[in-house]
Amino acid sequence: MEPGGPVEFERVVPASGNLQVAGKQFWLGPARSGLTVTFWADTSVIHLLIAGARIKTVRSHLSVADLGRLAARGGREAGPVPLPAGDGAAFEVDRVVNNSGLVGLGGHQVLAAAEILGGRQVGIRIDGETLSFFDPSSRELLRVRPNPLTGEEVRRLRGLRPAGPPPRPGIEPVRVQRRVSAVGTVLVCRQTVSLGRPSAGQTVTVHVSDTTISVELDGQIRVIRRTTDAPVRNVKANKPHGAPYVV
Question: How far is CA 20 from CA 25, 82, 128, 155, in A?
């Protein structure tokens, strides 16, 4: 058995209905007293099943050492994640985006949101044909991608859990900076915005929303209708920098 790998084990629900595993309590209610609960656990998630049916899923508090102790006390190497896949249900996992803007998911390298999210942890909602990348704390939608995973690949994902509420796009515009070119233009989301040659060389602040591009220049704000749906990739005038992402 691989250290830190998922473990399965059983516990009987006491009369109180409150099970305890490795210092954490699992409330199942007195009505389930006497029933045998199967735990499927790794360091990311814990699934509780009764008679093969999943009744509860929670985030794991277990360490690799905890899993080792549970295995030594009657546990066994766990089988596949006990979640159905391919029946319209939505699931979620957490992953960290690498410096190339990619996340590893079921053997696939999926582009999360270019380099702008490099090093950042994101939530990924797996929903039929799509992957929705979102901020785990606010559930703000960051990017939607096609889902390359099969149902079996989804079922085997590390840390898989039932999905929460669908993430929603942020309503605040993204604030970026751009340096005005020699011909008086800036490029934002692949859209060229003309500010005039007298502005050449200046660094301006730009607010990007889904429908408009607003430029702060000489104490005034110039609002331009947005004509592209390309995402914000660079926040600073000279190089990428972490910030929210426009879908």
Answer: 4, 21, 35, 27
